[in-house]
Amino acid sequence: MGSVLAASTAEEFEAVRRHAISTRNGAGFFTQPIGIWKPPVNSAIKINFDAAWKNHEAGLGVVMRNQNKDFCYGFASKRCCNSALNSETEAAIEALRCAWTILPLLEEIRRLSAGFSDVEWRWIPRGANRVAHVTAAIGLRAVCPQGWANQPPPSLVRVLASDGLPSPP
């Protein structure tokens, strides 16, 4: 079954390659229409992937975006591959691995966000997000989860004060 599927996939790839060759203009260059990325519909996540292959090395790339054209996740790596077809299939495999890794997390974010009347997501430069960054660093060193109500830990007091907030008593 695997060899039949591989042969079918190779035949499909070859048919697409032949079509691309037949679309060359007189100067020997491809004249393909300029494509514009289109977002997915119905709050789906669209996964684009590609591979660049040269001398038995492949660069693999995966990008996920939502219906608002927001970047959700990206991945890049280098692999040894024996052909361009092999590198493209490796990129497809990585795209699916990324989907199985990140999509359940995105679904959980959607589910939890639905409990609020308004949720806004923005990228904030680290300089304006220092408290969250320092808190994440505390989490990285923590042995167990930590939480604070009304009184931040001493390591956050100075960072909070640098944001212009009053220091806790």
From TrEMBL:
SUPFAM superfamilies: Ribonuclease H-like
Top-level taxon in the UniProt lineage: Eukaryota
GO molecular function, one term: nucleic acid binding
Pfam family, one: RVT_3
Residues of the RNase H type-1 domain: 48-101, 104-137
Coiled coil segments of this chain: none
Protein name (database record): RNase H type-1 domain-containing protein
